[in-house]
Amino acid sequence: MRSIRIVVAFILLLALALTVQAVVTLNIYVEDTEGSRMSDAAIYVGESYIGVTNSDGWLSYTHPGAENYNLRVSKTGYESRTLTIQKAETSRTVVLSRNSMVLTVLVYDENVAPLRSAIVRVVGPSLEKTEQTGSNGKAIFTLSDGQAYQVFITALDYRDAETSVQLSGTSREISVVMERGDRFAFRITDEETGSPVQGAEIMVDGVLRGTTRDDGIFSYNLRKGYEYLISVKKPEYEDYSMRQYITGDQQVLSISLSKAYYTPFISVFDPAKKIVDGADVYLNGMLLRKTDNYGRASLDRLTAGTYLLEIRKAGFEPYSQEITISEESIDFIANLAYSSVLVRVLVQDESYSVISGASISVDGVYKGTTDASGILSMTLTPGSEYTLTASRDGYHEGVVNHGVPTDGQQDSVTITLKPQFNLFLVGGVILAVLILGGGIYLFKKRGRKGTSRTRFKDW
């Protein structure tokens, strides 16, 4: 009986010993290719998840130790690894390599066109790579995933640019627009008022580069550290020209322009090219001068530009013209036209009695007939002599040569008509008189014969 107990105890101890020997603990250490321990690496045995590494990059796994098994380790940004662990193995270090991702850097100029030959430098943990952009403005890098990188870009005549990028599981493409480092501004102002000058022409070394905006600014790409001939032109201002050395830190060149003043002369003539004195000269609606005895008027201290010139003088049509005053054009000629004058034509006979219905022609052109008062009114232009003709039945045609005065006042002309003699009527009257006279003569003659016979008989 006792021997049986001893055998059973021995069997139990043997089973317990076998059980203790079957329990194995595997210490798992995860590192990167640089030898640094990695936390939060996921550990799988077969298809079963058993946990993640701690801050020291360590995880322990206890198993029966009955057979070999597969261990898989993964972490974002790294290539997963699967390896076979021996059943009695108690420690294993797993090294993970980072995934490779493509970073494409697109570099554009200020016009958002691809910028060629820009230098692109990518800096990351224990990494630095440099590429140059091609004609498409691209620089391409193969980098480890899961890392943050700084991107530095340099290009001739452009300001340095810098940006950062985080790679996380996918390839990336970033774009950078470069700002001109040689950007330079011209600021043009009025010397008297300090206000901006719009439309001023900017020339650099004799070449027109552009004009200022409404704020008086013109921007241009100008390399620093050089001397240039800077010229500024604006019609109503004095020309500016000076050599300027542009320093490396200079961004703006301020230039004040002085007003350019001119004294234009106005010469006024009539249609016969004779001078017109005493004419009122207006500029932009304001009376400035009267023409002198030589038909001239000076307009003092005018800036270059366009003005409305008006001239008024009795007897002449109003004159109006836009004139442009500049250094090349400061003398102007105004040719005035006469104003039409009202002319009253009176037609009368030799006894000063008015003749109505008389036809009036001027230089052979019919103008109308006189009214009941013997008058016809018309307008004629001064400065010329006209032939006025009046005609009426029963009268000889009347002709007057008349020059219309240039004083602008109303004018009058009198034409006197002489009556006409009708030959047929006169002949008829004479014939009637002769017949009448002959009748009287015959009557008287017969009377004398009768008297003589009576006297003879009686005798």
TrEMBL record:
Entry superkingdom: Archaea
Residue stretches making up the PEGA domain: 277-330
Taxonomic placement: Archaea, Methanobacteriati, Methanobacteriota, Stenosarchaea group, Methanomicrobia
Protein's UniProt keywords contain Cell inner membrane: no
Gene3D superfamilies in the cross-refs: Carboxypeptidase-like, regulatory domain
Organism per entry: Methanocalculus taiwanensis
InterPro entries from the UniProt entry: Carb-bd-like_fold (IPR013784), CarboxyPept-like_regulatory (IPR008969), PEGA (IPR013229)
Protein's UniProt name: Carboxypeptidase regulatory-like domain-containing protein
UniProt keyword annotations, A-Z: Membrane, Transmembrane, Transmembrane helix
Segments traversing the membrane: 421-443
